[in-house]
Amino acid sequence: MRNPGRRLDDGTALCTNCTPRPERECTHCGTVARHRYSDDDGAPRCKNCYQAPKRRCGICGEERAIAARQADGQTDACTHCYRGAKGTCAVCGRFRHGRHATASDGAFHCMSCWPRPIRKCDDCGEMKPGHSTWPIGDHCSGCYQRRTQVPAPCSACGRLRVMVARGADGGEICRACCGMDAPNSCCRQCNAPDDIYDDGRCPRCVLTDRVHDLLSTEDGTVPLPLKPLAAALTDTGNPYAVLNWLRRSRSAKLFAELALLQGEFNHETLDALPQNEPIRYLRGLLVAAGVLPRRDEDLARLELWLANALRQLPPHQARVIRAFGEWHVVRDARRRAARGRYTALAATGGIRARRLTGKLAIS
Q1: How many structural domains comprise the chain?
Q2: In a domain? residue 2
Q3: What is the DSSP string of 322-339?
Q4: What is the phi/psi pair of residue 137, to 5°?
Q5: One domain for residues 215 and 277
Q6: The whole model's pTM is what?
Q7: How many CA atoms lie within 13 A of 301 on its CB side?
Q8: DSSP letter string, 24-85
């Protein structure tokens, strides 16, 4: 039961959606079809060429096409902030929030795979699918990620924020200095007028929650020895850099395993793990945060290598190599380390040379 848009000869009523539309030529691509979209001047546009009018999004504050209008106390939500229903994406195959490409029978797309119009990026100057439109210009996905993940000091207020506009003097300014900040675009967790990073929250609140989830145990609490590390990661001047490191680094993935370890956190706990670059980087972070005491890592690396090498040898060979390694190699390294002359290069070169010498002696 809807308002009739047209009546047929037999008196049957058709609603406005079911009324057949006359075929017209799209003024942009020249396609002749039954178009139902029009520009501001009334020119017909097909569904592929039509761009919905843009307004200020109440969540992210950007000028984009609105997917959900303001109603029931909710603000306008753009196509990026509107989550919509869940379904299986026809492009990536993941079960995520999204919507259909058309109102009737279009394929379901998640918001990451939603088709975007090709526009010229004002930062790189290339024709790419548009990602965002700020007062400073249109941006592709790569330039948008660069601006949001690598903030810069605002030329007006001096704060480290994402630059979205250009001031009267030509310098780039943040969204607060250009008038884009509004009460509904503040962080919903701390209510600070900051850049929105994820789920309506600022980068610092997102970083605090992710570090807590990463270092917490099954009961949801961070172990007491790891609290200095959590404070060092969250109390940073640039939370974007730590967020990128948590998402990409292999060392960050070891924090979850470290939080599940029982007992006291010490160097011996890390020595029992496979020694590689992520473990060494993790050890350096723990030492810098005050979780582990400082030690001569170059000398400790040599001693740990000798202990691991002896465990892999037969008993009759281990007796000979242990006497040579402990009384000649390690003793010389300790003497040089006491004078401050045992460097990382000496430890790396010594391990390689002794490994080759040991293979030749055993053979």
Answers
A1: 3
A2: no
A3: HHHIIIIIIHHHHHHHHT
A4: 140, 180
A5: yes
A6: 0.50
A7: 21
A8: EE-TTT--EE---EE-TT--EE-TTT--PPEEE-TTT--EEEEEE--BTTBPPEETTT---E
| Chain segment 227-246, per-residue pLDDT in tens | 888 888 888 777 878 888 88
Q: Are residues 211 and 280 in the same domain?
A: yes
Task: Give yes or no: residues 307 and 266 share one domain.
Answer: no
- Average pLDDT along the chain: 76
Strand partners, 130: 140
Query: Which neighbouring-strand residues pair with 14?
Result: 6
Instruction: Identify whether 117 is part of a domain.
Output: no
Q: In this predicted model, what pLDDT tens digit does every residue of 29-79 receive, in sequence order?
A: 777 776 656 666 667 777 666 666 777 777 776 777 777 776 665 677 776
Residue 327 lies in a domain: yes
pLDDT in tens, 193-202: 666 777 778 8
Domain that holds residue 237: 204-289
Q: Is the model's pLDDT at 356 over the cut of 50? A: no
CA distance to 60, 161, 291, per residue, from 202 (Å): 11, 11, 28
